[in-house]
């Protein structure tokens, strides 16, 4: 076991709950650490339900193309905890090194003195320390859960706030209506700090606008203040400053037009003369984000399927993600027809029926599995029954290898999509690459 895994395992025991939304514990540890949240580079604070990771990577890729140094904080990790803390460098950033991570975690553990604090709170404090000890031009800071009471929401005055599309997820913490969920996301808005708002359901947009008016945050709203759309195989972006004719994002799927547009609107609102249109274009062409409609290249999993097949991976797990993926793979099938086979695992904190329903008309078969070593995993037999109730042909598998072998029996060679959970996606990537995973529990990986 890596040293960082041992420390992270200890940190999991500091609070009886994995998630306990409050800022009191965060303020306490930050004060003891000398308030590193006040010493960060300019912060772009990103909340939302879907598209946060893609938006973050577009921002980082464009700014790095301009030669800027960009820190990034994201969650959860897929394979290694180190993925959460990316330290910027003018020649491109890198995940935090094991030795530095260990020092930071132990420093926070010692100064916390055994007091109750959640895993995400204390590791976020460690990330802030890391970001203050390495100079950078910007920090792109992704919210962990919600916004209003998230551990990242301690930045008094970010350079910019961003809210990506809001949809149903984590209702047990954020509320059961889009209005309630949007209100939690809008909790990151700050007085006189501009906020870029991605395309939203009407109910969510209305609540974000109401919250912005209350706190006095100026908004740049999609399809009102800026637009992004595909035209003749290009991405066209337009705002009051003019029109940009850009390449389509490298990340596949029509929903990436909206994510890229949100990032472009954010970059334009910064009015940073160092970031030119050419840098934005380069960022769109080079951005990559694992487990987001990722087509898997060479690796261990190919030994179980025909070489003519396609193997895709996506960590999408809520109804909006299901709709976006079904639309994307339907469009892909129109271009190159293949039977689509889903390998599906999911947690019981998610709405499995609403996620799988959009695939009813496009999936040839669903093979379900129980995500290993996840106490909240839905049993494969229950997922299969859910899929059948939504009109899909479904069968169970004992494990990932078995699921791939079942999918491989479909002819002609199928398009295989492994989907339903970031925790499943992490295991897939680790297996495919032969890399060992961080030994922290799934629940602790928010």
Question: Could you outline the blueprint of secondary structure elements for this entry?
Answer:
Blueprint: H1 3-11, H2 24-32, E1 43-47, H3 52-65, E2 70-73, E3 85-87, E4 94-95, H4 98-112, H5 119-132, E5 138-142, E6 160-163, H6 171-174, H7 178-185, E7 195-197, H8 202-215, E8 219-221, E9 226-231, E10 234-239, E11 242-247, H9 255-270, H10 277-286, E12 294-295, E13 310-314, H11 319-335, E14 340-344, H12 352-356, E15 363-368, H13 380-389, E16 394-396, H14 400-408, E17 415-419, H15 422-433
Parallel strand pairs: 1-5, 1-6, 2-5, 6-7, 7-8, 13-17, 14-15, 14-17, 15-16
Antiparallel strand pairs: 2-3, 3-4, 9-10, 10-11, 12-13
Helix pairs in contact: 1-4, 3-9, 3-10, 4-5, 7-8
Description:
This protein is α/β, with parallel strands linked by helices. The chain folds into two domains: 3-286, Mur-like, catalytic domain (UDP-N-acetylmuramoyl-L-alanine:D-glutamate ligase); 294-445, Mur ligase, C-terminal domain (Protein-Tyrosine Phosphatase, Chain A), CATH 3.90.190.20. Helix content is 37%, strand content 16%. The protein contains 15 helices and 17 strands. The strands form three sheets. The protein has an eight-stranded mixed sheet, with helices on both faces. A hairpin with a 2-residue loop joins strand 10 and strand 11 (242-247). Helix 3 (52-65) packs across helix 9 (255-270) and helix 4 (98-112) crosses helix 5 (119-132). The chain starts with a helix and ends in a 13-residue tail after the last helix.
């Amino acid at each position: 076991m890596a040293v960082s895994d041992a420390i992270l395992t200890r940190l999991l025991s500091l609070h009886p709950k994995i998630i306990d939304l409050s800022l009191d514990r965060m303020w306490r540890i930050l004060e003891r650490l000398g308030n590193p949240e006040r010493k960060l580079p300019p912060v772009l604070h990103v909340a939302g339900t879907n598209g946060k990771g893609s938006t973050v990577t577009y921002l980082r890729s464009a700014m790095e193309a301009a030669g800027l140094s960009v820190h990034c904080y994201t969650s959860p990790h897929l394979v290694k905890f180190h993925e959460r803390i990316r330290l910027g460098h003018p020649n491109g950033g890198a995940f935090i090194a094991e030795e530095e991570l260990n020092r930071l975690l132990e420093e926070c553990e010692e100064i916390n003195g055994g007091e109750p604090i959640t895993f995400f709170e204390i590791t976020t404090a460690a990330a802030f320390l890391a970001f203050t000890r390495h100079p950078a031009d910007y920090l792109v800071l992704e919210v962990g859960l919600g916004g209003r009471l998230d551990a990242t929401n301690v930045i008094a005055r970010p350079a910019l706030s961003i809210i990506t599309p809001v949809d149903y997820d984590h209702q047990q913490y954020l509320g059961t209506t889009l209005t309630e969920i949007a209100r939690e996301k809008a909790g990151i808005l700050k007085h006189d700090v501009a906020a870029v708002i991605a395309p939203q359901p009407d109910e969510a947009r209305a609540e974000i606008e109401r919250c912005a008016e209350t706190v006095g945050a100026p908004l740049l709203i999609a399809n009102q203040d800026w637009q992004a759309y595909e035209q003749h195989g290009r991405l066209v972006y337009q705002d009051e400053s003019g029109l940009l004719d850009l390449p389509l994002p490298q990340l596949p799927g029509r929903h990436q037009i909206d994510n890229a547009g949100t990032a472009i609107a954010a970059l334009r609102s910064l009015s940073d003369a160092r970031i030119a249109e050419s840098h934005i274009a380069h960022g769109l062409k080079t951005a990559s984000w694992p487990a987001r409609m990722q087509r898997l290249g060479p690796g261990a999993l190919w030994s179980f399927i025909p070489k003519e097949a396609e193997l895709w991976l996506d960590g999408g797990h809520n109804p909006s993600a299901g709709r976006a993926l079904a639309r994307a793979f339907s469009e892909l099938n129109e271009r190159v027809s293949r039977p689509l086979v889903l390998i599906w695992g999911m947690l019981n904190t998610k709405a499995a029926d609403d996620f799988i329903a959009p695939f009813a008309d496009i999936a040839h078969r669903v093979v379900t599995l129980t995500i290993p070593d996840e106490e909240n995993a839905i049993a494969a037999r229950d997922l299969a029954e859910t899929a059948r109730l939504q009109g899909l042909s479904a069968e169970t598998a004992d494990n990932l290898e078995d699921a791939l072998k079942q999918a491989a029996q479909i002819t002609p060679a199928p398009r295989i999509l492994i989907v339903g959970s970031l925790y499943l996606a992490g295991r897939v990537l680790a297996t495919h690459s032969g890399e060992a995973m961080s030994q922290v529990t799934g629940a602790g990986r928010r």
